[in-house]
């Protein structure tokens, strides 16, 4: 694991955007694995700025997102489909037809999980997978558990994740209790992983991920085994390292 120290959120975002823009400059038809949440927003904004200036392009990129809430349709303002359009897809030159987010609103969600694994495999898996980390060490919606989930699957969200994500909903009761998430195996198939962390509330999770035991109780700890994983974290997130 390579650890890159950033000063603050903006510095982390800029460094992460540099890695992603280099990826798409060197390989214009890159397959990107993308993440939602507050952490990557600044990275997406920086990339959009550079794309507008003509420094990089996403015209030939295809993307596969990590997760989606069960029961939320793409036009729901708290859905991850909506998040991606608002925070990235609508800001850059990516072809929407080449973007993919798990279908949490499918009538048969289990089948949608199988289908998602198939299309990610057919795409050859991400050249670069962008990740955030939850306060409990989750990646995607792979929550602490007694085993590592392999493929895309339906997850029961933990109370701490529901609580953390309730800030984006009118009330905690509106937060869906389940999500669809890419599994750990699919994430590990990415050729390069870039995981970002900002803020003191991520400090324990970052320490456990980088220096702790490799355990499904800290899903991000599996990344210690990835051959090409870069952590970019700011001073606050590294305060326990
Ligand atoms: P955040 O979420 O970027 O909103 O902190 C990260 C995560 O829970 O994976």
Describe the fold and architecture:
This protein has 241 residues and is of the alpha/beta class. The protein is built from 7 helices and 10 strands. The strands form 2 sheets. It has a 7-stranded parallel sheet with strand order 1-10-9-6-2-3-5, with helices on one face. Helix 1 crosses helix 2. The longest helix has 18 residues. The protein is globular. 2-phosphoglycolic acid (PGA) binds next to loops.
- Category by helix and strand content: alpha/beta
What does the largest sheet look like? 7 strands, parallel
Oligomerization: single chain
For the largest sheet, list the strands in their spatial order.
Answer: 1-10-9-6-2-3-5
CATH topology: Rossmann fold
CATH architecture: 3-Layer(aba) Sandwich
Number of strands: 10
Rg, alpha carbons:
16 Å
Shape: globular
Domain tally: 1
Number of helices: 7
Along the chain, the helix and strand elements come as EHEHEEHEHEEHEHEHE
Strand share of the residues?
15-25%
User: What is the averaged pLDDT score?
Assistant: 97
Bound molecules: 2-phosphoglycolic acid
Weakly predicted, low-confidence segments: none
Distance between the termini: 14 Å
Helix content: 25-40%
What top-tier CATH class fits best? Answer: Alpha Beta
Give me a quick take on this structure:
Helices cover 30% and strands 17% of the residues. The protein has 241 residues and is α/β, with parallel strands linked by helices. The radius of gyration is 16 Å and the shape is globular.
What's the layout of helices and strands?
Elements lengths: L1 E5 L2 H18 L4 E4 L6 H12 L9 E4 L1 E3 L10 H8 L11 E2 L8 H14 L5 E4 L21 E4 L2 H7 L12 E4 L2 H5 L4 E5 L5 H9 L17 E6 L7
The structure holds 2-phosphoglycolic acid.
The site of 2-phosphoglycolic acid has 7 residues, from loops.
């Amino acid at each position: 694991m390579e650890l890159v120290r950033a000063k603050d959120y903006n510095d982390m975002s800029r460094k992460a955007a540099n890695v992603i823009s280099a990826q798409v400059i060197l390989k214009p038809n890159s397959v990107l694995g993308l993440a939602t949440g507050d952490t990557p927003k600044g990275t997406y904004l920086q990339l959009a700025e550079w794309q507008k200036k003509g420094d990089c392009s996403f015209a030939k990129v295809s993307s596969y997102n990590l997760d989606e809430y069960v029961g939320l349709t793409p036009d729901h303002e708290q859905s991850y489909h909506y998040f991606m359009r608002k925070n990235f897809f609508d800001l850059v030159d990516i072809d929407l037809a080449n973007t993919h987010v798990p279908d949490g609103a499918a009538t048969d969600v289990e089948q949608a999980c199988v289908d998602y694994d198939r299309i990610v495999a057919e795409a050859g898996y991400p050249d670069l997978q962008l990740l955030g980390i939850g306060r409990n060490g989750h990646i995607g919606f792979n929550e602490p558990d007694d085993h590592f989930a392999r493929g895309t699957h339906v997850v029961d969200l933990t109370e701490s994740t529901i609580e953390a994500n309730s800030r984006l909903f009118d009330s905690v009761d509106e937060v869906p209790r389940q999500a669809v998430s890419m599994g750990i195996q699919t994430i590990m198939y990415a050729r390069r992983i870039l995981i970002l962390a900002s803020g003191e509330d991520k400090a324990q999770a970052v320490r456990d991920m980088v220096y702790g035991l490799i355990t499904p109780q800290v899903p991000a700890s599996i990344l210690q085994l990835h051959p090409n994983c870069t952590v970019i974290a700011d001073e606050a997130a590294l305060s326990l390292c």
